[in-house]
Amino acid sequence: MAGLVGKLGRFLKSPEGKRVTQQAQRALKDPATRRKLTDAVSKFRGGSGGSGGTGSGTRTPR
C-alpha cells in the first residue's frame, strides 16, 4: 500500500497532477457540481442523507 501512496504523491506533484487538482477545485466551487457529488456519495453509502434506514452503520446479528 505504501507504493500506491508514493505513486499518488508523485502524481499530485507532477504538472498533470497539479492541473487535475486545480480542475477539481474549480469544479467543486460550482453549486451544481457539489450537489451532484453529494448525491453520488449519499447513494454510494446507501442512505438518503436522513437518519435511520439503510446505511446507518448497524448490522442485525444472524
From TrEMBL:
Annotated region (Disordered), positions in chain: 1-62
Sequence ranges of Gly residues compositional bias: 46-56
Lineage: Bacteria, Bacillati, Actinomycetota, Actinomycetes, Kineosporiales
Biased composition (Basic and acidic residues): 27-38
Protein name: Antitoxin protein of toxin-antitoxin system
